[in-house]
Amino acid sequence: MSQQPTSNAANTAGVVSTNFIRNLIEADLAAGKHAARKWSGRPGPGPQQLAGTLDPARIRTRFPPEPNGYLHFGHAKSICLNFGLAQEYAGRCHLRFDDTNPEKEEQEYVDSIIDSVRWLGFSWDGPLADASAASETNLYYASDYFAWMIEFAEYLISSGHAYVDSQSADEMRASRGTLTNAGCDSPFRARSVAENMDLFKRMQQGEFPDGAHVLRARIDMAAANINLRDPAIYRIRHASHHNTGDRWCVYPMYTYAHPIEDALENISHSICTLEFADQRPFYDWLLERLAEGGLLQRPLPQQIEFSRLNLSYIVLSKRKLIQLVEERHVAGWDDPRLPTLVGARRRGYPAEGFRLFAERVGVSRSDSLIDYSLLEDSMREVLNASAERRVAVLDPLKLIIDNYPAGDSEDCFAPKHPLKPEAGTRAIPFARELWIEREDFMAEPSKGYHRLYPGNMARLRYAYVVRCTGFDRDDSGAVVAVHCDYLADSKSGSAGADSYKVKGNLHWLSVADACLAEVRLYDRLFAVPSPGARREGDPEGSERDFRADLNPDSMRVIRAWVEPALRNVEPEQCFQFERHGYFVADRVDSRVGAPVFNRTVTLRDSWSARPGQRK
Ligand code: ATP
Ligand code: MG
Questions:
Q1: Mean pLDDT computed over every residue of the chain
Q2: What angle do CA 413, 414, 416 make, to 5 degrees?
Q3: What is the pTM of this model?
């Protein structure tokens, strides 16, 4: 992928790709802000970052998923941003599992996330910054830092910056205040350091039930920012954790754990989505206190927020995705219609298409809804350059060339890729009986129709010009075969080819040679741009059920004819089926001899033309 910083000018898709994060990084690098930062790879046990040197010209970012679900297209934006910036500035990006919540996390998700980030083309391994032979493996689990987080919490208690609160959850909520009213102090706020320390130790030893006490930062119950009104930092949870088992019965709150994870890993730029902007003052407060106490070195990581990706025609909330899977609206997490990365891979969306898309949508701090066609255009663009061409007849109608000798056949040659002559050609057998698309013939042509109809001529691509002489109907009146004569001196590539001027140019396959394939015609999962959004006429303030907006035509499975060579297609091979779109051999179900293709995307966007579809 490109290592070049790209400009922030409006790109071809018309979306302004702001690069305020790049500007910030460049300013930090120019100022030598991270020159003092030390690093020697994986942090070991101990309450401070390890010694070692990080080249001052380098940055560290991280992608910190919680392993409680499969990655979706929104995560892809964050992955491309974080890993992409690290690549661009020759820094490092860490993959860190933010697994501080014992209840919802599972190994299955960890494995799938690792797989998806690799599939997107990124790596967390590499040589040490100091160019020694040793290598860094920047794959981390936040739960590996639990001992440090406890130690830091005890430091906060001993320095008067934290206390154990024994109010009930309801009491705590009531005393927190509101956006307009200050909160009030807990009756336990003035506990002595010794009492707080004793209680916190006993919390760790499992002496109290869930919810009996929480450890809170002591900041300011009257702070304008509610997040600074003595936020909870540790809670009691008697639960098994996927990584640490039953070792702990207290678990850190996300807002406490996250800044510490960043600092321990020497992250320079901690990039997150906008909803964390209100947490930034606590992020900074916490790291400042720990640095004051000598527990962390400066410079401290800086949190930078950008707006999350919202895409039309799809939902990107984990809760809704889980619902779609569990209620079997889709076939599973890797259903090609789901906006998960495992689904995208099965759909045939190329990883490079996501990187291109991420660059095009750019980063900004304002919320917007990105049109799904922008994602599809990125995929088309990558596939147009990479996918070899093949022929498939999806809705077959028989074409009989009456003046072509029965039993004869000949090879016609088609370029594998029109933009890459060096890729060579492929042979497609031509014979008396062919399959063409049903829509390429009309018994009674409409105005402007240039393909086959009685008396008209059209070219069979890479082969001959044919003149339609008639057609057969069955008892119900349906057209079952079209008859024509071919013009023997019109073969593509021959001297006579240019003497025929015809407007229709059809694809075809020989009936005797074509290979049968299952083809899954996927389309958008939802039929409206904002699934679940209120529509005109709905009561004020009501929300529709997003499931009511599912597109009933999001998948159609057909039997189709494909070029004979596709009988041996390998899973995940991508092709353009000429005149139809891009297709991929299904990585789960396709077999040699029995190919299964998924439609990745059509050649052109048909959605923007549909009435009432644009917001
Ligand atoms: P969801 O909101 O779907 O539950 P999440 O934010 O809880 O997702 P995490 O595993 O915590 O999922 O996210 C990992 C990283 O991905 C975070 O840094 C988060 O900000 C980022 N991320 C999640 N959703 C999006 C999105 N739609 N656009 C950009 N980044 C996102
Ligand atoms: Mg999250």
A1: 90
A2: 130
A3: 0.91
